[in-house]
Structures are given as C-alpha cells and as structure tokens.
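Re: the multi-chain job from yesterday

Posting the exact lines I submitted so nobody has to dig through the queue logs.
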Amino acid sequence: MKCRICGKNAQVHLRQHNLALCRDHFVERFEREVERAIRRHRMFDRNTPVLVAVSGGKDSLAAMRVLHRLGYNVSGLYIHLGIHEGVGYSDLSLQKVKKFQETHGLPVHILHLEQTFGYTIPALVHRRRQQVPCSQCGTVKRYWMNRYAVEHGFPVVVTGHNLDDEVATLLANNLRWDTGYLARQAPFLPSTHPRMAAKAKPFVYLSEKETALYALFQGIDYVRMECPFAEGAKSIFYKELLNRLEERSPGTKLRYYREFLRFREEVLSSHTHPGVELRTCTVCGMPTTLEVCAYCRLTSRVGTQV
Amino acid sequence: MKCRICGKNAQVHLRQHNLALCRDHFVERFEREVERAIRRHRMFDRNTPVLVAVSGGKDSLAAMRVLHRLGYNVSGLYIHLGIHEGVGYSDLSLQKVKKFQETHGLPVHILHLEQTFGYTIPALVHRRRQQVPCSQCGTVKRYWMNRYAVEHGFPVVVTGHNLDDEVATLLANNLRWDTGYLARQAPFLPSTHPRMAAKAKPFVYLSEKETALYALFQGIDYVRMECPFAEGAKSIFYKELLNRLEERSPGTKLRYYREFLRFREEVLSSHTHPGVELRTCTVCGMPTTLEVCAYCRLTSRVGTQV
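And the result, structure tokens for all chains:
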C-alpha cells in the first residue's frame, strides 16, 4: 500500500477511513485532527494553561506531547495511586512518566494519594470490598485532578480518552438509557462553578490504535499493562464487543459516537435542563450536585482524611 | 431447582428474573405477561378481529395460540414467499402452518406472493442483487400484511417479534442514533390512516427462549431453520453480541428495552412530531410518507405488477 498523500510506502492503514498513510503523513493528520477537535468544541486556546491527567499510559503521554507540539501551554499531573500489585503498577507508571518528562522536557507534577487522601487505592478497595474498584478510584482521581487544577491556576483539565474509551462509556450509558449521563458525555464540559475546571477530551475522534501509533512514532515509552484492579471490568468487555462490531463494519465506532453527539445536541440538550445547578460541598467547598460531594461521602464512609 | 410457585420440580429457569418454574406455572406466567403487554399498551380488546402475521416459526404460531387461549378473536395470514432454497423453506413453513391449523383449529389465510406481487422473493433478489434481501422482503411482506388486513376487516395486525428481535433492531437503530426509527419503534403503533391497520407486538417483553418454551409446552410443531436468505444478516450478528451481554449480566436485554421505552416516552415523543403526517400513495392508495409508497417504488423498479 502507498501513502495517499505522497505515494511512498504506507506504514499505517486506517480501515475506518479506508486510508493508507506513511509515518509522516499519519503524524500530520493526527495532529490536525487534535487541533480540529480543540477548535470545534472551543476547548482552550494557546494562552490557557492546561493540566493533562497523566497516567503513564500511551493516551495521556501522547496528549501532552501533541498539545506541546501544537504550541499549547501544557503541564501534567500524575496521581500516584499506590498500586504495588502487578509487579508495582504505580511505580512502573511513575518511571515512565519521569522518563517522558526528561526526554520531552515537559513539566509533570506528582501527587501521592496516600498523602492527600489518606489511603492508597488497594487500601481503599480492601476497606470497601462491596464496590467496584474502578468507580471509587475514578471518584478520587477526578476529585484531586480538579482540585489540583483549581488550586494551581489551570482552568482546563485534559484527559487522553480516545474513541474506544468514549464508545465503551457510551454503550454502558446507552444500555441503561441514562438520560443524565448521556447528556453529560461530551468532548468538552465548560466550568459551571468557581471551583470547577473545564474538562476537555481532544482525542475523542481518534481510535486507540491511532493514539498508540502516534505514541510509537513520537518515541514515547509508556506502560503497556492494564491496571491490575481493572481485570474483568465491564468497560473491557464492552470494548471487546465494540471491536467485533468495528471488525465487521469499519467505521461503526466513529459513526456511533458522532451520531450520538448530533443526537445529544438536537434531542438531549433541548430536553434536559442545560446543566444541573451545581452546589458547593459543605465539607470541602468543591462543586457537587448534592449537599456533600461524592469524594467527601466516600471519605466519611472509610474514615480518616488527611 | 423447585418451582417458586408450587415447589414441584422446576422445568424452566429464567435467569433474567432469577425465577424457576414448573411447566404449568411457566405457561401461566407467559400468558399473564402477554395479557399485561396487551393491556398496558392498549393494543386491542376481545371484540377486535386481529390478524397474526404467521411465518411457520415458533413466535408467530405461539402468538396465535396464546391469543386464542386468552379469548381474543384471532386469524392468521401466511404469505408464501416462494423460497425453494434451503430444502424448500416456504413449502416447509406452509406445511407447519397447515398442521397447526388442523391441530389447533384456528383459521389461517394464505397468500402467494407470486400471484399478488408478481415475483417470488428469490426472483426479486435475483433482479435486484445490489440490495439486502431482508429489507426488500420486509417491504413486500409489510405491504401485503397491511393491505390484506385493511381489505378484510382486521383493524390490527399482530406480529410475534420477541424481546431478542426488538433489542437487535434497537441496537441497529441505536448505533446510528436514528431519531425517526427510534421514535417509531414501539410495542404498539395505532392506525393513523384510513387504509392502515394498527401494529401490535405482544411478545416484546418475552425472550426468544420463553417463546420457544411456550411453543414446546403447547405442542406446536414449527420451522426451526432460519430463512436461507438471512444468512450473514446483521440482525443475527447483533443477536449474538446481545447474547454475550445477556450472558454476562442476565437482564441486560430487558432493561435495555424497557429503559428505551421510558426514554422514548420521556425524551423522544416530546421532541419529534407526534407521528409523521401520512399521505396516500398515488399509485395504489395505501398509506405512505412520500408521494409513492415503498412497495410501489419497488414494483416500478422491478417492472411487472400483477
């Protein structure tokens, strides 16, 4: 196969677009798609300090790299979860992040959950066995990501969620027809509270394969293992099913997601109230829909807060 | 396992309800669920002559049987599609229908597509290779089912679509977020044109397994083979995926469908116009959304109409 742009040997074939590209033109296209998503959803401009939620995986490191290359004002935040399972998952991830920081010269702040939250994720899971680890871990990570951004002058938090992540979440919300969750699933959520950073996902139109290739071509070394606590997670199962759909009809995921966004705009936004009124958590002062935020409800259940 | 009602040996286990039942209590429950669906959606009463679209398969024969047992005024219509492929699919189906008619003493009218439409389904498929057979066959069958009902005094057409059929269709519409198709997918569609029969699907809350068991327990002999033209159909592929979801989380299909109906009621019905204004086909006088109905457009493309 030849690159559709320059006719040289293609290194990438994107089945969903029936498009073969050489390495350089793949990278060029990838960066153009990121720029386009940022503009289309008015995520942020080049003057805005953005904080990328960095896990040590391909998506978040690729996000830092591409935003920097596109001239954005980017910093990272790595939250150390204290997961020593899986041959030291958290330490291994941190190593990759530090290596990235040295190689690419981009600042990454580090926050230890054990210090801020009082528990590592395994300690939390151990205390609250009845709940799914991913959901609790998500609550804690989102809380600290937002709080760090707000307290350190970052109006926007960027996450590396790719198309495969988004459609897996979409399918989960869709199977329950959860109007609230569907209405809030967007590439960009603006801030609606003084202590809330906007949330931006510039990779939502790019597949997992594309972000992995971009990371590879940019020489990014990343953690390849899944979090050991994610084993058997529903999201992984949904991704498998969606992969089967994509295999049979390339382009299914992108269409499912794009058409959802149109539907959301046309149908859901006119139906649901434009953004639930956010309140201020009476315990910690961060935004919440209830009187006490999900994070403070969790800490009050597990006890001790640092 | 014991029957939850009477404590005798259970013959059926409905995982989605975590319910074990003996044969008699399964039948009782099945019939109660059908009655409940008919009432909930105000489909028809015991005085209304209803026409069941009979294919020779388990669902449609079970539908005739259960409606009769519940005291409804029921007749069947079998449309002979002229499919000789698959060791004589259509003739085999007709045999099963005739046997059912004799055994259960219920009237089934028979219509030969070659006489009314001028083509058998294989002849049509042969002429219009570019299209998916199921979609064309559906247009022709729906047209004649409705026309026969209207011309013979049946205000309601009943089909045996079960939960598995409905969620497969729902998933297909859902992956495209097709607002129009989603808005029209309902257990009951009332008539909105003088030459349109209402469409009722009393099995939508019952799984394929349940209708098969009911048919078995009622001594119904039915065609077990799939239509030979349906091989590789997307709907079969979607059913497989949905079966995997159901296996992992029993009850997923029923929740997906029920929550969809709630969503449709709450969100879609207020958004979309309540029923597209139906027009009258300028060729045949039957209802249509365009100037000429889908059936007449098809016949004008393939030529000859009887």
